[in-house]
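Summary for the steering committee. The consortium agreed at its last meeting that each partner would contribute one worked example illustrating the joint modelling workflow. Our contribution is presented below. We chose a case with several input lines so that the handling of multiple components could be demonstrated. No manual editing was applied between input and output; the record is shown as generated.
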Amino acid sequence: MSANYSPSEMMTIAAARALKNDDVCFVGIGAPSAACNLARLTHAQDIVLIYESGTIDTKPNVLPLSIGDGELCETALFTVSVPEMFRYWLQGGRITTGFLGGAQIDKFANLNTTVVGSYEKPKVRLPGGGGAPEIATSCGQIFITMNHSKRAFVEKLDFITSLGHGKGGDDRKKYGVTTAGPTKVITDLCVLEPDPKTKEMMVASLHPGVTREQVIEATGWAIKFFDKIAEMPPPTDKELKVLRELHARTKAAHGEAA
Amino acid sequence: MSANYSPSEMMTIAAARALKNDDVCFVGIGAPSAACNLARLTHAQDIVLIYESGTIDTKPNVLPLSIGDGELCETALFTVSVPEMFRYWLQGGRITTGFLGGAQIDKFANLNTTVVGSYEKPKVRLPGGGGAPEIATSCGQIFITMNHSKRAFVEKLDFITSLGHGKGGDDRKKYGVTTAGPTKVITDLCVLEPDPKTKEMMVASLHPGVTREQVIEATGWAIKFFDKIAEMPPPTDKELKVLRELHARTKAAHGEAA
Amino acid sequence: MAVVQKLAEAIEANLHDGDTVAMEGFTHLIPFASGHEIIRQKRKGLTLIRMTPDLIYDQLIGMGAAVKMVFSWGGNPGVGSLHRFRDAYENGWPNKIEIEEHSHAAMANAYDAGAAGLPFAMFKGYRGAELPRVNPNIKEIKCPFTGELLSAVPAVKLDVAFIHAQKADRDGNVLLEGIVGVQKEAVLAAKRSVVTVEEIVDDFGPRSPNAVILPHWTVTSIVKVPGGAHPSYAHGYYTRDNAFYKQWDTIARDRESFSAWIDEHVMRKGPDAFAAFAKRAV
Amino acid sequence: MAVVQKLAEAIEANLHDGDTVAMEGFTHLIPFASGHEIIRQKRKGLTLIRMTPDLIYDQLIGMGAAVKMVFSWGGNPGVGSLHRFRDAYENGWPNKIEIEEHSHAAMANAYDAGAAGLPFAMFKGYRGAELPRVNPNIKEIKCPFTGELLSAVPAVKLDVAFIHAQKADRDGNVLLEGIVGVQKEAVLAAKRSVVTVEEIVDDFGPRSPNAVILPHWTVTSIVKVPGGAHPSYAHGYYTRDNAFYKQWDTIARDRESFSAWIDEHVMRKGPDAFAAFAKRAV
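What follows is the complete predicted structure of the assembly.
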């Protein structure tokens, strides 16, 4: 085990560990992409990775900068059009686990990636939802990766870009949604999971060395903890090695391309 | 010019002549397929032929027995799935001329390929509409090829499989249809075209040697003639040669396959 | 996750009496070997969905496997009638069957909707045509922006899809090429799927990035049956047996010659018999 | 029927002030050469439709070509904001622009519906999401069979579609390979289309029967512009210039450096300048 790792590496590794060998993942750029490929290169070598650019069962050697880098297509089993991706594969219910992130999250894991401030007169105009609104409802379950801060973990979203557990309980069903929704929020401090009944996201495990106070301090709502909190095992040497090699290859590839 | 040709050859040749070099045709099996390929091998070498099996811009060396013979795919520019064929290409309005035929036709060129007798208790259960209901309304215009007989050219259809000019006039518009519909019915005796106003199909030309009486006798309604009737020029030597070679190649290919 | 099985095992495990099934292939890649195995296993009460019933459903219907057929063009392509279907529908031999009739566009869209997880398909269809009068599964919907009326039909939802393809790889992925019809849609619209293939390869090798592939986690069972599409065909392997399609008209025209043919060519044979047709490859 | 032209002629003939256009390419094959020519020809009042506006629309918006943008994800992929878009939308520089915002699923379906000749698209979308509150072009429809509620958006209908592809042949057919995005749909949903290509060949040669092709009678104008997708990429020709995407963040962050960049790399250059990027092929 290595003591020298960053909180961001711990977040990626915790997300990778949550993935199973038979998962079919709808992968986003950034931490999700790193986590999914780390899982593929360690304990889940048969995991199927799908990017919304249409690339199915892809095995990139370097992480893509964009959702449609050539690497994804070149290493994919096959590539479909974007309408087919969203119609047959996502809406068709063929994905077990989708990844999302956002600028803001609330206690029911609803997400905002649209605006800070009002929609009509935003303080900050963010990129928008992209695939998120339908990823959130069509995948079997959702994993969310985000850095933990009061600015991001808020009492009330400025805009609901994608549905988490709505107002809690079985609120998803009201919208005709039958999938599980967010089952894990993986941050650089801890992992949140929904209370089975209220669906409020609560701390299920802390990363090594992280205190409850740190989490409380970094959360914009009165965050709750499960009765039994596990401590996330630190990254193994292998996990760190594979992740760092992946990032090094990526950095070299993207720099050289200029 | 050759005097030795059959009425069926004249029908195919008359249909071929009606096709233009820049037509994009939705081709059916039988006489339409022979006519379209004859046109391609004579005066309209750039004509685009599409079969509903998904084969686009195909140049078969022998006529297909089925709508999806391997020959069609092997000689096609490309082949799409059947949903794409009906959605993007037919419904998308990308076809100039569609071919239809049927067991029964009425004076407004509505067609029946579904049942003889009642739908629920048919005297003869025919194959059904296949692509016809949407070909009839989505193509720029429709050519119909049928052998001329009282049993086929009827006062009233047992079942309306596909729309021609409906009850006449601008009846097609009532159904939200903006395409021209049947502009020619090409038989083994003559060519019918719609009256510009009533849209009743009337004799526009007679095949060589065919009399008005023969046509009247073979039609189940009181068929009308345009004021000026042309006589269809007989097949040229080249047309007959190309058509017969096409049929000979086809016969050899289909027989040998056993 | 696809498993490689024997054909008898695959049918046994995946198909039950009363199931709603599609055996697709638009002229090309029709899964005849699966059809014959279903006849041998004497399944009953099936609802058979197929755009063009073709000989494969004529054979199943003639053997009493079906109670309902959903279709859009019920003939022997380029030849004439499906006599066994007509005998069942018109005369109730060997049993009565119900029909649900659509157009090709309707069924192609209904498969697409099934694959896409939608409850129904919409299209510009049936305008001025009479089928909506006799088929209650054809309705209208209105565009909420323009007011235009469109046709609606229920999505195809299957218990089992049967298809035939050129190749599977060791991971259980399936490659189709040529006239691909609605096979991908049928498999994606089904709870279970049985895919017979010409061959199983280690790797598909060099190919278009946009090749038509069904990945392993969408397929239930893979069975190697070379020639398994005969008298239909497999692009790149063997051609359509157009002469047999013509002969079928005589074979199926009466009940005795049909029964004799099935006895000789289906009941007394197994899937290996199809290999003889694969060998005639061109 | 496709004609082969110079880029300046193609834009001149096909694009008019006030048109509704899409320049598509999902990360891959983005038609930057056409975008630059549109800037040089100073078109105004355009409605720009694109799932991911990317740098191509950031450049057009920064030069005042657009009055409206329809989109589903408006960032610099993997990098951050589109500063010129934000400056126009938040501060009205160089002019105000209106936005119409959708999800990817909505736009992908809307392109599909446009290609299919439908007036609208339906999908299981926006459930529990807030965009329908602020976008009147998102409505609901009800399945006439199950009563399930689905989202509806208008089909994409374009005056002109601009795409970049690998190859055209002498007949004017266009071949795309790799991440094909919504380009086929964009062309089929458009009245006119301008396709820039890496090369024009006599014949596409051996290929999958199911290759992605736009046939000549669906294309208005073909222009050979090697490297014309840079800093995006062309599968089989050259890779994405990820470093430039990162540099753009600095270039576009302020108005002066943006204007200087456009002046140097767009206004003082022509389509031939893109050939330098094609040569960096891997």
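Chain D has a mean pLDDT of 97. Chain D touches chain A through 57 residues (CB under 8 Å).
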